Amino acid sequence: MANLSLQHLDKIYDNKVQAVFDFNLDVKDGEFIVLVGPSGCGKSTTLRMVAGLEDITKGHLIIDGKDVTQMPPKNRDIAMVFQNYALYGHMSVYENMAFSLTLAKEDKNVIHRKVLAAAEILGLTDQLNKKPRQLSGGQRQRVAMGRAIVRNPKVFLFDEPLSNLDAKLRGSTRREIMLLHKRLNATILYVTHDQTEALTLADRIVCMSMGHVQQIGTPLELYDTPANIFVASFIGLPPMNFFDVTVNADGTLSNAEFTVQLSQEEKALLSSYVGKEIVLGVRPENIVPGEAVKANVINVENLGQNTLVHCHIGNKRVTAKFRDWCEYQTGADILVDFKTKHFFDKETTKAIR
Ligand code: ADP
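That is the input. Now the predicted structure with adenosine-5'-diphosphate docked in place:
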């Protein structure tokens, strides 16, 4: 396995579209990094630059201390798993998994040992003689991973590996990838648009928007201390609720619909914003039954352990996540409080720290 350093990477395509701007990341040996962001934000381009499938316009890529920026893909010792599996239909599972080693003229006994070992890890031992079309989507995805594992690469790259699977399989395959990472202790770069995958899989998340890195940190850091409104709204489901509010000299926040009291700590944090408008962010689970803010119920979704209460606060649509089972009629007025609050500068959209 290996460490990896992406230094000031830019990608400008031939049509002059700049897909990636000044991407910087140091990946430690054995680390699981997830690149997450909406479609078109430059995740795949970044991954493909690491793989060597796209030229790096500017910057350097270092693997284990060696500059591989100009090196062809086959010499980089990297294995990539794609969302469409890219399996050979006419070959058996065994042959698919053995393919790269056969191509490299590896000894037959060594190939056999490696394929069996990978099949064992992936629970494919009984499927080795089958053709890909005889397998489920989840099994095909595992064959694609097996093909990467047998090569024992320095770095694994995953490009949306779960997006062709149905919801249930996505969950179970996600857990398999997690175990696989633990077992192989592999250095992984993983691309997804799904924030749940990012939160559950990553040691660290790189959140991107429009070609720019927005924040790099552990899942908890991105969830608890998002760097800006983009990260705050992208990470977390249902997403954070946002309100335009004024910071008042009396230690409150207010708008036309509500006034809420700030703690001493929050007052200190916002002292330079008195008299100004900021953006208040509140996660659904931090809107709790209370007394300060009037909300009008649109509808409720009972999920068992908790209830999503969709409501209007003024004319703003808001989602609260209450604990336990709640029954409210559409149109009912309820009172809520905001617990943990996030504050953002209205102009820069950056978190106020
Ligand atoms: P993501 O993986 O986050 O969905 P991509 O890296 O695929 O995003 O794309 C980032 C941007 O680069 C998009 O605007 C996309 O249209 C553009 N792009 C991707 N591939 C090419 C290409 N081969 N030529 C020109 N533009 C491209």
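The first helix runs from residue 43 to 51.
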